[in-house]
Write a structure and sequence with these properties.
The structure is a single chain. By secondary structure, this protein is an alpha/beta fold. The protein has 2 domains: 174 residues, no CATH class; 242 residues, no CATH class. Helices cover 45% and strands 14% of the residues. The protein is built from 12 helices and 9 strands. Helix 4 packs across helix 8. The longest helix has 49 residues. The N terminus is likely disordered.
Length: 455
């Protein structure tokens, strides 16, 4: 059993050596992923940006009327906000166009490789439809190119020296302010609603996305419906943003301007994300291949008696093989970690439902970071990672053995027994023993990757 001992001890360490290339970790939005708000470079080029969105109303938060103060901080933010938005819009368009072109190339290549691999396993007729590939994303990009999504409707000015809970009680705009008793500072938020109206000849569908962001902590939420494939560029309504700022008579003006402008860049980089619908940007482009292959398999006849398990396991495993060859093991682990451990509703740097007032009941999802991994071969994920482990160790030798067994079936057969036999023949270890050790190794590898991915 010396061979088994080395298998158990190896866990992840031996796997990482075979990485064929790293795959970038995705943030909620392209702008935040780019790090545009992390330094001074973006603001240094402020004067070069084309103004965006026309004039902005400046509102006195206390009175709700036009602001008539002469505060130099307010004047600077008023003048520079459209430039910041113009620069961010241009950068978003560049990033998304480049990302789309990359995904179109990679998607075509990935789809072709998966189609050939599936065909070798007797799964014929599968292909990724080029016409419908990334159709929604291409529509959003066309809309982004034609017209910005965001419009800064108003800049709401609050003077720090006049703020108190009593002063903003029953003030509609004051609902977006909160005094944090722990930090002893006032905090601001924005709440936005994206509305998409999809009209057909005899149908109408409305899809909404709600976002909220604490402008001082960059924590927030993202809740949305899924966007259907029938969406058109004209379906998207303009999002109007009311942005509050707090100015102080006692703080240095240049310091306030610098801080507020950096926060604006960070805030908008999180909020201006037209591509995340139903799921975060991190998972878009990445889940379509396995799910489409599975649906294709479900529509075909099969001699396997455990169809549901078999279709789920094989569609995931075959896609994992292609992913390994294209990106490396890191991408397999990263997508699993994102789907299993991260908040689907996260906006910004951390989840915050921003329930600041009575009647606001956006329930945050349960904490997922400490969720345990429990693999067994009877489950889809357990079987998938057991097969992945064998492939990582034995490569095409295992793939060919498995292929011959699955394509050589002449009558109704349980697929589990065939897969277990392939594992045993290739590894030289009893299937139960190998699977137990393999799942232990994969579990350790995923946990290690999860805990170190952002370091």
């Amino acid at each position: 059993m010396r061979r088994l001992d080395s298998l158990t001890k190896a866990a992840l360490s031996g796997f990482l050596i075979i990485l064929l290339g790293s795959f970038p970790l995705f943030s909620q939005s392209a702008l935040s992923e780019s790090g545009v708000g992390d330094g001074d470079d973006f603001l240094i080029e402020l004067e070069a940006y084309v103004k965006y969105g026309g004039s902005i109303d400046v509102i006195d938060g206390m009175t709700g009327k036009k602001y008539h103060g002469g505060d130099q901080v307010v004047k600077a933010i008023y003048n520079n906000f459209p430039k910041i938005m113009g620069g961010l819009h241009r950068k978003l368009l560049e990033l998304e166009a480049r990302h789309m072109a990359f995904q179109m190339r990679q998607g075509t290549r990935h789809g072709d490789m998966l189609s050939e691999l599936a065909k070798s396993f007797g799964i014929r007729g599968f292909y990724m439809d080029d016409e419908n590939w990334l159709k929604k994303e291409r529509t959003i990009l066309s809309r982004l190119t034609a017209k910005p999504f965001f419009k800064i409707k108003e800049l709401v000015v609050w003077e720090l020296e006049g703020l108190s809970g009593m002063a903003i009680r029953n003030n509609e705009r004051g609902k977006n302010l909160k005094f944090n008793t722990e930090t002893m500072d006032w905090e601001r938020r924005v709440l936005t609603e994206w509305e998409v109206n999809i009209r057909g000849r005899k149908s109408f569908k409305r899809v909404n996305k709600w976002q909220g962001l604490n402008l001082d902590t960059n924590k927030g939420f993202h809740i949305s419906d899924s966007l259907p494939g029938s969406v058109y560029t004209s379906s998207f309504e303009e999002i109007q943003l009311s942005y509050p700022i707090i100015v102080s008579r006692s703080e240095n003006e240049a310091t306030q301007i610098d801080r507020l402008q950096h926060l604006i860049v960070q805030n908008i980089s999180h909020l201006y994300d037209p591509f995340s619908w139903g799921a975060p940007r991190k998972t878009r482009f990445r889940t379509a291949f396995a799910s489409r292959l599975r649906r294709h398999m479900e529509d075909r006849s099969s001699r396997m008696t455990d169809r549901d398990w078999f279709d789920r396991v094989m569609s995931s495993f075959l896609n994992d093989v292609v992913t390994l060859k294209t990106y490396g093991l890191e991408e397999v682990y990263d997508l699993y970690v994102v789907q299993r451990f991260e908040y689907r509703q996260l906006m910004g740097v951390a989840m915050d439902p921003l329930n600041w007032h009575d009647g606001e009941d956006r329930s945050p999802p349960k904490q997922r970071n400490n969720k345990k991994i429990s693999f067994n071969f009877k489950s889809h994920d357990g079987a998938r990672f057991a097969l992945l482990d064998v492939y990582l160790r034995y490569g095409d030798v295992f793939l060919e053995n498995l292929r011959l067994k699955l394509t050589g079936v002449k009558k109704k057969t349980e697929s589990r027994s065939l897969i277990r036999a392939a594992i045993e023949e290739v590894s030289g270890v009893p299937a139960d023993t190998y699977i137990q050790a393999a799942l232990k190794a994969q579990k350790a590898g995923i946990i290690d990757y999860r805990d170190n991915r952002n370091n």
